[in-house]
Design brief:
With 417 residues, the protein is of the alpha/beta class. The protein is built from eleven helices and 17 strands. It has two domains: 264 residues, Quinone Oxidoreductase, Chain A, domain 1, CATH 3.90.180.10; 141 residues, Rossmann fold (3-Layer(aba) Sandwich). The strands form three sheets. It has a six-stranded antiparallel beta sheet with strand order 1-2-3-4-8-9, with no helix packed on it. Helix 4 crosses helix 5. The longest helix is centred in the middle third of the chain and has 13 residues. It binds zinc ion (2 copies). One zinc ion binds next to helix 2. The site of one zinc ion (ZN) has 6 residues, from loops. GO terms for molecular function: alcohol dehydrogenase (NAD+) activity; S-(hydroxymethyl)glutathione dehydrogenase [NAD(P)+] activity; zinc ion binding.
């Protein structure tokens, strides 16, 4: 069984050591959708590397209950089964989606669970049938997948894989409906197929993008989710031409990544729209040239933008999830050619309302999921954009905290909300 391949990249895990204490260096990077702040710092922590029949005993941050601090626990991680890979996670970041499901205010709670879905790591072992990844490969796990066989994967236009599309309710692996994590026999649930708040995790091979091994994982780990989502919304869907005007609604991490996409595309004016004026200074680093706070005006923001731009912007990207922002983002694009792209996730009962004339006058409304990137096929090229210095990722990272202090990252995020 190839799943018995357990030769790790790290000497501390190799061989039959029983509770060998080792000092390991690891980053914990965190990001957030709304607050747009990441923090990184070096940290050290002790862990117990134990290897019995391919099982690993590792440290993971377990959420036992909704809204309660995570607890660093010694967790057993099973070997990968068919079409699965086991990853050593080196860096992970925190996204608002982790916090949302950890708070479990709007969904059925599923605990105990290991959260985390933005990360960079190295393949440690592969299960049966895995041919395009091998131990040592540098990878980004992704919350949505690409099986390469379904009608979506076969379509050039879609990235919404039938088999591996994001599923926030499932806390187990697809193949056998079981978890690969346990503590004294008690299963610990997975989160969106990634569970990266753990030294090791098991992921379906279709949710793993193999990237350039020279890419620094502490930086490119943020491409697993929000940054690619915003960047792709602009570059793959809105597709602004050089010299065009672009409005970005919402200047959280996703919105700033959308602005970064507009900057890369050569937009001449990038108008940031946000209710929080404090964000404008930060947004300048991402190419935002003008700022509109809807609170400062007594008319709809789409009218303000139309006046600023002689009839409307060429492109707009909405990254807030607010239904009013979505409508404004659509109505602020120029007639004749304007394209608006929706990225934010609305509330359950929201309805989009606009006069049909706005569409008849040749405005286009589009939506996107994960920036239209196919995780396995396209993420490696996004990493290359960073390697070529076209895409800047450092400015998205504002905080670093040790993995052992992961709860601090949650506190930062909650404070910024
Ligand atoms: Zn995310
Ligand atoms: Zn598929």
């Amino acid at each position: 069984m190839s799943s018995s391949n357990t030769a790790g990249q790290d000497d501390t895990f190799r061989g039959i050591h029983t509770f060998k204490h080792s000092l390991s260096k690891q980053y914990y990077v965190f990001s957030c959708f709304r607050a747009m702040s990441y923090l990184c710092l070096w940290f050290f922590f002790f862990f117990l590397g134990q290897l019995i029949d391919g099982w690993k005993c590792i440290a993971a941050a377990v959420a036992w209950e909704a809204g309660k601090p995570l607890v660093i626990e010694e967790v057993e991680v099973a070997p990968p089964k068919a079409m699965e890979v086991r990853l050593k996670i080196l860096f992970t970041s925190l996204c608002h989606t982790d916090v949302y499901f950890w708070e479990a205010k709007g969904q059925t709670p599923l605990f105990p669970r290991i959260f985390g879905h933005e990360a960079g790591g190295i393949v440690e072992s592969v299960g049966e049938g895995v041919t395009d990844l091998k131990p040592g490969d540098h990878v980004l796990p992704v919350f949505t997948g690409e099986c390469k066989e379904c009608q979506h994967c076969k379509s050039e236009e879609s990235n919404m894989c039938d088999l591996l599309r994001i599923n926030t309710d499932r806390g187990v692996m697809l193949s056998d409906g079981k978890s690969r994590f346990s503590i004294n026999g008690q299963p610990i649930y997975h989160f969106v197929g990634t569970s990266t708040f753990s030294e090791y995790t098991v992921v379906h091979v279709g949710c793993v993008a193999k990237i350039n091994p020279a890419a620094p994982l502490d930086k490119v780990c943020v491409l697993s989710c929000g940054i690619s989502t915003g960047l792709g919304a602009t570059l793959n869907v809105a597709k602004p031409k050089k010299g065009s005007t672009v409005a970005i609604f919402g200047l959280g991490a996703v919105g700033l990544a959308a602005a970064e996409g507009a900057r890369i595309a050569g937009a001449s004016r990038i108008i940031g729209v946000d209710l929080n004026a404090k964000r404008f200074d930060e947004a300048k680093k991402f190419g935002v040239t003008e700022f509109v706070n809807p609170k400062d005006h007594d008319k709809p923001v789409q009218e303000v933008i139309a006046e600023m731009t002689g009839g409307g912007v060429d492109r707009s990207v909405e990254c807030t999830g607010s239904i009013n922002a979505m409508i404004s983002a659509f109505e602020c694009v120029h007639d004749g050619w304007g394209i608006a792209v929706l990225v934010g996730v609305p509330n359950k009962d929201d309805a989009f309302k606009t006069h049909p004339m706005n569409i008849l006058n040749e405005r286009t409304l589009k939506g996107t999921f994960f920036g239209n990137y196919k995780p396995r096929s396209d993420l490696p090229s996004v990493v290359e954009r960073y390697m070529n210095k076209e895409l800047e990722l450092e400015k998205f990272i504002t905080h670093e905290v040790p993995f052992s202090e992961i709860n601090k990252a949650f506190e930062f995020m909650l404070k910024e909300k």
